[in-house]
Backbone:
């Protein structure tokens, strides 16, 4: 079964760092782009950025460029989303998702989501 | 960036109804459009891609149409499990963007 399994919920304080993960299985992890999508409480979906684990080619939405870092470790089929200094406004559900084919494509497989809460 | 207007934001309907959701683009995107369904507390699921291609496993009561700037998602006969929020997404250009969402609720 093709699936993406994300790391568990996190509660952090402003200014702290954080790295959440997304592990792929059931398919060739290095052959598909993986993306990250933010959903703030009660709000819609926001496309953050993508990575191609095969060569670590990474693209960011201008809204998130410089705010987060997307990376991947192909040896363990895992993608990451990290923050160096969290803000309260980073409180959201974060989904990883697989792109069907090209860098510009629909997301066909989604992780279950990781809730990040940033509060003092 | 491409701006999207999804409407309505809230749709009240009954089981068995035919419902349509619209997505309008600020510029033409050919057929590079997807539709997703999201149920409360769950991740989104892909319903349709390339504007009208049904994702594997998705019931045939879902259909998509349109190209260029105007797109429609139609549910031909609403079932209880279809009450959810629906999002369109353009993937014609960077950055891909999502519509604001349409919540389909029980009338």
Residues:
């Amino acid at each position: 079964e093709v699936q993406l399994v994300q790391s568990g919920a996190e509660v952090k304080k402003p200014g702290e760092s954080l790295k959440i993960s997304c592990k792929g299985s059931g398919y060739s992890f290095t052959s598909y782009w993986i993306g990250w999508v933010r959903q703030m409480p009660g709000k819609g979906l926001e496309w953050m950025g993508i990575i191609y684990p095969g060569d670590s080619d990474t693209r960011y939405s201008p809204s998130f460029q410089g705010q987060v870092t997307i990376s991947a470790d192909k040896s363990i089929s895992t993608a990451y989303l990290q923050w160096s200094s969290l803000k309260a406004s980073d409180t959201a559900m974060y989904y990883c998702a697989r792109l069907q084919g090209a860098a510009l494509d629909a997301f066909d497989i989604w992780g279950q989501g990781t809730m990040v809460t940033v509060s003092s | 960036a491409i701006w999207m207007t999804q409407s309505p934001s809230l749709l009240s309907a009954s089981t068995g109804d035919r419902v349509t959701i619209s997505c309008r683009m600020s510029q033409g995107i050919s057929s590079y459009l997807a539709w997703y369904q999201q149920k409360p507390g769950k991740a989104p699921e892909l319903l349709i891609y390339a504007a009208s291609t049904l994702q594997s496993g998705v019931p045939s009561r879902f259909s998509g149409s349109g190209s260029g700037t105007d797109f429609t998602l139609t549910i031909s006969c609403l079932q209880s499990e279809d009450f959810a929020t629906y999002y369109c997404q353009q993937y014609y250009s960077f950055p891909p963007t999502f519509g604001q969402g349409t919540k389909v609720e029980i009338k």
